[in-house]
């Protein structure tokens, strides 16, 4: 009977189970994720090599002129290694780590989750997934507030694959598309797109794309050739918050 149970456990029947319990499932960038991983033994004793947590997110990739949803690992942590879980036994492994600053916020179709896995040799590895709602940190919120004050509305936010020279550590970036609905830029711009590259909680690099509205025949030709789009990089700091609206307005105005 013991041998039969071992065979069943090797294919995942009666094997150890894993369940991750987060203390908070809604977090801002840079905040600490805390929780506990519960491992419950199955019908037989099993050797567990590792427990690992992977922070994952979805993004889109263009394949043959259509969008395909892909998954990427943002960061991975090992929280335990080499132990035995007895049949019916329960063990708990607490964890705590900072939510990486380049984690995408959960807006639009973007999904972020914590994947938990047990590494068991010669057996199906038990897993668990827990979704996280990621909120922007103070620096991002200030940029969103300024754009709203300047008359822009967030039209779309999307994580998508981009060329190597644009992205940083991940295979994708999260792009925010703002359209002018009031104020001085209405009628002058089609949209402003932004990508955030946080360096620290107090410093962030912005890649801004200003898409000018086509004016006349020359403008239409420029738009057709994508010559009406201007990219600019700017780094903002905590001390810029008081003057951020003035500085962003001047930058957008320069390329409008």
UniProtKB/TrEMBL annotation:
Pfam families recorded: Spo0M
Highest taxon in the source lineage: Bacteria
Phylogenetic placement of the source organism: Bacteria, Bacillati, Bacillota, Bacilli, Bacillales
Stored InterPro entries: Spore_0_M
Naturally occurring in which organism (per UniProt): Anoxybacillus ayderensis
Name of this chain's protein: Stage 0 sporulation protein M
């Amino acid at each position: 009977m013991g041998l039969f149970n071992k065979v069943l456990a090797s294919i995942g029947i009666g094997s150890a189970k894993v369940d991750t319990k987060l203390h908070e499932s809604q977090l801002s960038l840079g905040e600490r994720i805390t929780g506990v991983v519960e491992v419950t033994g199955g019908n037989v004793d099993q050797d567990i090599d590792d427990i690992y947590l992977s922070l994952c997110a979805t993004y889109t990739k263009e394949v043959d002129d259509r969008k395909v949803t892909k998954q990427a690992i943002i960061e991975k942590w090992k929280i335990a290694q080499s132990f035995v879980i007895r049949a019916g036994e329960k063990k708990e492994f607490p964890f705590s780590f900072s939510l990486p600053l380049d984690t995408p916020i959960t807006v639009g179709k973007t999904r972020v989750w914590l994947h938990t896995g047990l590494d068991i040799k010669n057996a199906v590895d038990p897993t668990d997934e827990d979704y996280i709602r990621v909120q922007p940190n103070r620096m991002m919120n200030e940029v969103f507030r300024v754009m709203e004050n300047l008359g822009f509305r967030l039209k779309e936010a999307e994580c998508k694959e981009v060329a190597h020279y644009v992205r940083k550590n991940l295979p994708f970036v999260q792009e925010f598309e703002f359209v002018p609905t009031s104020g001085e830029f209405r009628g002058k711009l089609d949209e402003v797109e932004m990508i955030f590259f946080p360096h620290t909680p107090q410093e962030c690099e912005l890649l801004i794309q200003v898409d000018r509205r086509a004016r006349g025949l020359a403008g239409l030709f420029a738009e057709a050739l994508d010559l009406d789009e201007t990219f600019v990089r700017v780094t903002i700091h905590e001390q810029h918050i008081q003057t951020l609206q003035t500085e962003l307005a001047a930058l957008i105005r320069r390329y409008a």
